[in-house]
């Protein structure tokens, strides 16, 4: 009799538990779900981490670690061991890991240290840096089950393209992180590994589908992690954990060779997912994207453009009309026209616009801030995105589940069911709609395009172009588990293939819990559900949680995106944590 999904899950969890050294185990009272609302400080309290472990994991960001390792001021084995220990603690508190390969990582770190001792040179641009990966990446000898029982105990025989690149550049991979079932849900729960908990507040979602990655980085169990994003799966966990996350354009970061749960070639008919960093600041994300771009990434994946980082258009010169030191031009998109942001999100957007209008930085004598109105495009983007994402009728995923009798996760119940596969003509029409929306969106960047709603710009109809757009990540604060509503504020930019990133701004304050909804009727069913996240919850649950914005750049302008995010981070961000968290801000 074949194993049931319960049998497989039990074996898989036992395998994972046995890969954590006994001396790194917490008392049973610290098991997942048994702790207080926040566990961010537990690693500092239990005595498993030495003073040196704490210094390594709290006094350096990823960029600083790369510099110290390359200069021989830190040994990779010490850095990797410290992060393995902290990841082990994070796993016991938040259930964020899937595959654990600490022993392999420490052995590789020793080899890299020996290489440095012999040659005096680092191996690659990421020499000795520990990095975590979302479970969908294939690493030789380990599963890429993505939390589906039918895909367990089938170790990868090859590495994903990005894994090969990272290893070539000297990175040390030591664990993979949890995902939701099907990787199409917004809470990271599956029947094999269980549910990942938000480390700052166990009542709230850590996000999905890179939720395990977000929880691990938030716990300082990883200096930088790699997630994937086809509808918000990097940006949503970044928002939920108060982190920075960047979704590149397709063609910038190798993606080939992953386990997506779908038939080979399916992505060509749908929307291409992209891989990108989740970190604690913008400079770490830029460091990783620069390292990938300068590592001949096109030799690992035929979809990657043959262009190193320095060849990508920078912030000042990416468009013909832009001159060096011209004012930074920022568009404020307050709503997508499909789900109206709740009062605290509206207030945040007003604050950001006001700060930018009253601020300046050395590179710009002034910042131009304009309001843009894309309400005529937002609902169409969601309709087209949903149509493209359902072309196979969910049949492949449900076939995987049927093999072991595995049920759907809670968030997917009522949302995912078998449907007829779309016909060739239906797929063609959806792709035509996508191209039309991408073409129409080009006008959003132009002052003359008809989407700028600032009175002066309408009157002048000049030749200005936006550098970036700032908009909400979601129309609501971080919701409780299994309560996330629409992804349109993120998925629209997957459909449009615009690089976009998330930037934490400040914490939700008690005053943010005030404010009433407009008396007008909901725009639609999605908007009605979104309103319930304000009217049907105790708003105290939001207090202290991060409030973040999304920053968007034109297609393939990834370097421009992170450079603009760095400017905005300097102008907008304030510490979200205290104590040791604050000390690590570099």
UniProtKB/TrEMBL annotation:
Family: Belongs to the amidase family.
Key words, A-Z: Hydrolase
The keyword Protein biosynthesis is assigned to this record: no
InterPro entries: Amidase_CS (IPR020556), Amidase_dom (IPR023631), AS_sf (IPR036928)
UniProt EC number: 3.5.1.4
Coiled-coil positions: none
Sites where the protein binds substrate: 183, 209, 230-233
Recorded GO MF terms: amidase activity
Active site (catalytic residues): 134, 209, 233
Entry-linked PROSITE patterns: AMIDASES (PS00571)
Top-rank lineage group of the source organism: Eukaryota
Catalytic activity from the UniProt record: a monocarboxylic acid amide + H2O = a monocarboxylate + NH4(+)
Keyword Protein transport: no
Annotated protein name in UniProt: amidase
Domain Amidase: 78-561
């Amino acid at each position: 009799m074949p194993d049931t999904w319960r049998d497989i899950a039990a074996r898989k969890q036992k395998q994972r538990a046995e890969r954590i050294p006994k001396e790194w185990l917490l008392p049973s009272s610290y098991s997942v779900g048994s702790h207080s609302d926040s566990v961010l400080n537990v690693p500092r309290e239990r005595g498993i981490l030495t003073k040196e472990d704490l210094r390594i994991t709290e006094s350096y960001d990823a960029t600083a670690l790369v510099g110290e390792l390359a200069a021989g001021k830190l040994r990779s084995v010490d850095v990797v061991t410290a992060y393995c220990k902290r990841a082990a603690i994070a796993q016991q508190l938040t259930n964020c890991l899937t595959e654990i390969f600490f022993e392999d990582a420490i052995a590789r770190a020793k080899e890299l240290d020996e290489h440095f001792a012999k040659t005096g040179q680092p191996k690659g641009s990421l020499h000795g840096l520990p990095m975590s990966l979302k479970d969908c990446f294939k690493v030789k000898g380990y599963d890429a089950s993505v939390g589906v029982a039918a895909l367990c105990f089938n170790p990868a025989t090859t590495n994903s393209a990005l894994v090969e690149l990272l290893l070539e550049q000297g990175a040390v991979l030591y664990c993979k992180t949890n995902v939701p079932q099907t990787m199409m849900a917004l809470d990271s729960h599956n029947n094999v590994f269980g549910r990942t908990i938000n480390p700052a507040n166990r009542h709230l979602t850590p996000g999905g589908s890179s939720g395990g990655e977000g929880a691990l980085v938030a716990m300082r169990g990883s200096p930088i992690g790699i997630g994937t994003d086809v509808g918000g799966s990097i940006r949503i966990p970044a928002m939920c954990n108060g982190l920075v996350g960047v979704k590149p354009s397709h063609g910038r970061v190798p993606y080939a060779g992953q386990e997506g749960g779908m038939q080979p070639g399916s992505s060509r008919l749908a929307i291409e997912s992209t891989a990108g960093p989740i970190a604690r600041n913008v400079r770490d994300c830029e460091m990783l994207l620069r390292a990938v771009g300068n590592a001949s990434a096109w030799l690992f994946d035929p979809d990657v453009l043959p262009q190193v980082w320095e060849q990508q258009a920078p912030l000042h010169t990416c468009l013909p009309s832009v001159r060096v030191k011209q004012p930074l031009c920022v568009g404020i998109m307050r709503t997508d026209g499909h789900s109206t942001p709740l009062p605290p999100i509206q207030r945040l957007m007003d604050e950001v616009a006001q700060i930018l209008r009253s601020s300046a930085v050395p590179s710009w004598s002034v910042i131009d801030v304009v309001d843009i109105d894309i309400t005529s495009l937002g609902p169409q983007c969601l309709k087209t995105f949903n149509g493209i994402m359902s072309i196979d009728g969910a049949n492949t995923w449900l076939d995987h589940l049927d093999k072991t009798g595995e049920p759907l996760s809670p968030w997917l119940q009522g949302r995912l069911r078998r449907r007829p596969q779309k016909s060739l003509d239906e797929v063609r029409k959806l792709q035509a709609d996508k191209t039309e929306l991408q073409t129409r969106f080009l006008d959003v960047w132009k002052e003359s395009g008809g989407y700028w709603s600032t009175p002066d710009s309408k009157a002048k109809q000049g030749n200005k172009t936006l550098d970036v757009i700032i908009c909400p990540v979601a129309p609501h604060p971080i919701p409780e588990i299994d309560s996330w509503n629409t992804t349109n504020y993120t998925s629209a930019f997957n459909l449009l293939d615009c690089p976009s990133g998330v930037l934490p701004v400040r914490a939700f304050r008690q005053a943010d819990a005030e404010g009433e909804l407009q008396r007008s009727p909901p725009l639609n069913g999605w908007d009605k559900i979104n309103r319930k996240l304000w009217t049907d919850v105790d708003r105290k649950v939001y207090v202290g949680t991060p409030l973040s914005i999304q920053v968007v750049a034109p297609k393939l302008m990834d370097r421009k995106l992170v450079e603009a995010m760095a400017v905005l981070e300097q102008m907008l961000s304030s510490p979200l944590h205290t104590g040791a968290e604050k000390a690590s801000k570099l």
